[in-house]
Fold these 3 entries.
Entry 1:
Amino acid sequence: MAAASALQCDLDASARTDCGELASDQTTCEASGCCWDPLDDGVSGPWCFYSKGDEPGSCFVFQNSTDTAPFSDSEVAAFQTNFLANVNVESVGAVVAAPDHDTPGGNYYYHWMRDGALSMRSLWANPNLDRDTVSTYLQSYAKWVIGRQSAVAVHDGVDVRVEPKFEIPDGTVFDGSWCRPQNDGPGLRAITLMFYAEELLEADAKDAFVTENLWTGDSSSLNGGAIKFDLDWVVDGWDSNTCDLWEEVQSSDFFWNRVTMKKAMLMGSAFATKMGDDASASKYAEIAAAIDAKLDSHWLGTFVAEETNRQKDGAVLVGFNNGFDESDGKYAPTSVEVASTVNVYNTAFCSEYKINTDDSASEVPGVLIGRYPGDNYAGGNPWVLSTAAMAQLLYRAASYTLSNGVPTDEALEQFSAGLNVDFPADAKGISQTLAAAGDSVMLRLKEHVGGDDGHLDEQIDRNTGEQMSAKDLTWSYAEVLNAMAARSEWEAAYN
């Protein structure tokens, strides 16, 4: 097969769709009729890619049924049991990333600030846990956070609040070489603790746990409380250089950081008002507006990009779910920005992994999603958490349609292309179709994790479809439980 012409191959990294195998070189790439053009260091994307006009469409396999949940109640209960085994480990309030000391990335027996905050937010939102149990876990976590906020700093110029991870059980800062600072931690922790604090204050407007630990109203007492101390870091540090979600590259302009920090500031403004701190409320609202102005540049007209040098990134999908705030509605789950990103990302990851091609050929519903095209960590594979995040986003879009009406024609066109489905005209029918797309994603995930007795690892081998890398990854459980909770919420509203 002849190689593509230079004109056909003149594509920016963001417009490229992977055309090669993991070990492709220029000879094998061009022999397949694909384009070969190495990227500069620090720029993420495929070197072997389809020429203009030859890009494949989405390989998404749509199954139009929501009659049966993709995972049964007993399967969800098994995920929950394994998830809870990783929370409040050694009774110190910590969340272990994974009880696995030997992964491709080394020892995972640490409390990662990001994983911990997101996992505890998942636990707070879990509809299958009684609230007393939730409260016990959240109070242990809050105490752990307070302890880490006062831990001894060990790296010059790095505030302990933006350290990536901590030792278990003693809570000291991890002193080894790692990507730091990680500036998303303060906002993510504050969001989780504000959700919990709001629940406590609903029951008792003067709840002692809130006023003694989370928002003391006194800078000399726990620096104003766990929530305020973290929010105040965001005020000062939101536009500074940081590591990305995957702890590999640095920038001051990641979508993930922007969108979650903005949510922290919006929630923080409302929470500060409730606590009678109008000055902080005003400052947080001001910073939210400043962050919002920076977010617009991430919409490229065809999809939302994580950052200039790594544009297509699963962190954006996780950000859509964790950073959306009803108070301003930006990047709503049925917006054209989200729908376009679903379309572009599904297509990108379809061609990235042999297992997606094989599954689609066998009519296995859905698609598997990874971190980013061109990833080579542990061979570069689909991730459980990224795939579940796509499903959660689709379930949220289904619920949003029920409460907010029919999406725009442009958004539906993008969803249709990415999900390989034609939509009905009415809101309820569109909602059911989007939920069925979420089920489709979860069914493909189930194809590869369903035989492992409720255990979820970090990744799925790109060739064999077997689970691999870190065993019992807490964040994997959190994202799958999030997706199933979002489905339950949709089902209750739909019926």
Note: The two ends are 54 Å apart (CA to CA).
Entry 2:
Amino acid sequence: MSARLPESIVAAAVAELEDKEAQRLKEFKEEVIKQGIELKYDDWCYVRFLRARNLKVNKAIAFFKETEAMRRELHADGIVAGFEPPPTALKAWCHGWYGLDREGHPVYHQAVGNVDPSGLLKGGHASNILQLEMCSAEGANIMYEWLSQHRQELISQTTMIFDLQNLGWKHLNRGFISLFTGNVDSFEALYPETLKRVLIINAPRVFEYAMTFVRPFLTERTLNKFVVVRTNPEAVYAKVAEFIEPRWIPQRYGGTVPDEETGISFAGPVDPSNYAYAHFNPTSSVNISKREPHTEEIELATGDVFRWSIGSQEVNEVAMKLTNDEGDIVIQRSCSVSSAPIYDFYRADQACKLLLTISISSSKTKRVELDTTVTCAVDTLRSHSYAYLAAWWRRHLPDFEPHLHTYPWLSEQAAWQAYEADKQDTLKQCNSQPDAALDAGKSEDLGFQALLNSLTDSQDPVCRSRF
């Protein structure tokens, strides 16, 4: 929902609100308390919801409640630790964080024009692409914390570069439009007012027509943040450099940073060898029908993650249900698996026993392929998203060098260790006390090891609670 920003920095930002916004914030919190809703986020989170609804308190509260419900349904709070995207989806989709804008906001890249619209949904399930985008947005909340500490000012928004080079009529098919507008709609609902600006570059003629599909899902406040640049390379570089220092600009936009060093996936054609089913390695195969579903019992400790992937070449749609000891439904999904298997997860807030049920609508017996794993809480620190955050942190660490002391919860020794490891690729002993995962020798990458040390050794209980 919101970054866990330093209290002093949030307080300073709130103190600078205009009188009208400050009054609406007061009314918002009073009404929320009256409705019996816990005030578990910082004030800036509520400011975002108010601004997203033009300071209309009742509308902002309704929006807030809808977002909370949506986050529970999508298990957003556990997605960074829990979701492991299929490697084929990572290659097929365009995404990546690299660089900071001139005001210190992180920069997110999406080269949508490079996406292979027909191959994308064979490289990864549509719902998994949405989860991948959610991982990026949730990861941004952690970046906001780091950057706010570093600059000692509020950083809670992102600058986005939206590259439309190669966008054409092939992208305007029903499947791709549905996926893309679904992502846009979810982002507006889950992360209001976290966009600083959107630089739309290399916009072709088809852009205006494509916007007719997207515009209904965007608020006027968001649309007003769009900056559109056509396909002239000099104009593209000039506009990007207006907001982002040249040292953070990839070569494809006229900068000096090799594209492969940015950590950005610029997507591209998806070869059949990179379709999701070509890399799907299930551990079991079960025969099920409408009358004979497949069931599995799972036992989880607090913080454990249960992951599963389901596919089938014999049936189009598969339904899954996860229930607890009391029979309450924890997760219920029904989705097509004809083009790609689906991957999903559940992270346990407390110790529990669950029952997984997989069913189909056909009365005939069909084969469904399945893979299930349980990952203990400590090992979830090695999820894809945490590893990506560690890599982002290491790429940007030179910018933090003079200000490492500004992190009261960040081990300076761990930070320097990661920096030295990046330069020399040597193993050094960290002075901060390692956590259980590191004691067990499960982290082989020193930069990642140092990042985990800096977070798990935090004296800030809020920071520690995430892990």
Note: The chain is about 40% helix and 20% strand.
Entry 3:
Amino acid sequence: IPTLGGSPLDLPRLFREVLLRGGVQAVMTSRSFKDIARIMDIPASCTSAAYTLRDSYEKLLYAYEQKLVFNRAPDALPPLVPFKNADKAAAAASASASASASA
């Protein structure tokens, strides 16, 4: 179990807080991990709290979320796209499709 602020991370609470906000993709898009850190009483001195919460969620809870909410098998998990990269990924995919269509 990861530690944050000198205490073990409360994974069940993290899972509930993320689901209450629509799942990890919605939390990443709205950049709400900082809010979740505040709600979970993680000290402000933990400057990497949002990153650590997101990283821990992706590694330990994402597959469980996908199985519980969407009934997806572990080998069928969609990739997570951070908000700041979502537009870049869509543009790259569009450019790639245009390039291969014109070739």
Note: Strands lie at 3-4, 7-8.
